[in-house]
Automatic annotation (TrEMBL):
SUPFAM superfamilies: alpha/beta knot (SSF75217). GO terms for biological process: methylation. S-adenosyl-L-methionine binds at residues 113, 133-138. One of its GO terms (molecular function) is tRNA (guanine(37)-N1)-methyltransferase activity. Homodimer. It comes from Candidatus Seongchinamella marina. It is found in: Cytoplasm. Belongs to the RNA methyltransferase TrmD family. Keywords: Cytoplasm, Methyltransferase, S-adenosyl-L-methionine, Transferase, tRNA processing. InterPro entries: Alpha/beta_knot_MTases, tRNA_m1G_MeTrfase_C_sf, tRNA_m1G_MeTrfase_TrmD, tRNA_m1G_MTases_N, tRNA_MeTrfase_TRMD/TRM10. This is tRNA (guanine-N(1)-)-methyltransferase. NCBIfam families: PRK00026.1 (NF000648), trmD (TIGR00088). HAMAP family: TrmD.
Length: 245
């Protein structure tokens, strides 16, 4: 997948291009990241990238021309059919399904705003969709773009090995993940559940599914309301709730 970043602070993206799962995906060529900085398209000696808002008021907006040219350069780098996403607190909220859908795109252009944001006409002309990472306001779109890159990259074929499958993660199957345990078998006086030491794969599968169902019911009942359940899942959830009561 190609990802072109439009940002005044390209250095920030080293956090995803150099480290961990995303850094590995970049090194393996599964994700190609390019940068397009509006500051490179300024024409004045101060390399100005902000401008005053019409109507007055506090704060500045991103200057139209450098931003528009940076987006054009990102399109030239990725191809015209790349989806242009403006990170914005006013956009559709990113969730698991959205990350999966975006992972099927060939190319994404992620536009990170700064200051009070971007001229509305530029959004209308250049942006395919606005995406928010939550109901709060960040100082810039870079962190939000990195959240998109990480959540989308995890969904790309070949990025996670079998041992670290995204299919087992929270939300993948409409459930939260089950609890996990590692060595030692006893820690702070608490033992690892016996079933996980049994070596019986079927029992372990059922235990994990039961914990995932119970945990989802307790923490995110809204997820279960919109999910159809198999007979086994209904049985395991009932068992979990009986054991807890
Ligand atoms: C200070 S914010 C501008 C907020 C804008 N005045 C508003 O209230 O809608 C600057 C930039 O941060 C980014 N940003 C802030 N919060 C975000 C969020 N929740 N999700 C995605 N991007 C966000 C956007 O790119 C935005 O242009």
């Amino acid at each position: 997948m190609q990802i072109a970043l439009v940002s005044l602070f390209p250095e920030m993206f080293e956090a995803v291009s150099e480290f961990g799962v995303t850094g590995r995906a970049v090194k393996q060529g599964l994700v190609q990241i390019s940068h397009s900085n509006p500051r490179d398209y300024t024409t004045d000696k101060h390399r100005t990238v902000d401008d005053r808002p019409f109507g007055g008021g506090p704060g500045m907006l991103m200057k139209i021309n450098p931003l528009q040219q940076a987006i054009a350069a990102a399109k030239a780098a990725t191809g015209e059919e790349a989806k242009v996403i403006y990170l914005s607190p006013q956009g559709q909220r990113l969730d698991h399904n959205k990350a999966v859908a975006l992972s099927r795109e060939r190319a994404l252009i992620l536009v990170a705003g700064r200051y009070e944001g971007v001229d509305e006409r530029l959004i209308e002309a250049e942006v395919d969709e606005e995406l928010s990472i939550g109901d709060y306001v960040l100082s810039g779109g870079e962190l939000a773009a990195m959240v998109v890159i990480d959540s989308v990259t995890r969904q790309l074929p070949g990025v996670l090995g079998h041992e670290d499958s995204a299919q087992e993660d929270s939300y993948a199957d409409g459930l939260l993940d089950c609890p996990h345990y590692t060595r030692p078998e006893e820690y702070l006086g608490k033992r690892v559940p016996d079933v996980l030491l049994s070596g019986n794969h079927e029992l372990i599968r059922r235990w994990r599914l039961k914990q995932a169902l119970g945990r989802t019911q307790e923490r995110r009942p809204d997820l279960l309301q919109s999910r159809s359940m198999t007979a086994e899942e209904n049985e395991l959830l009932a068992e979990y709730l009986r054991e807890r009561s």
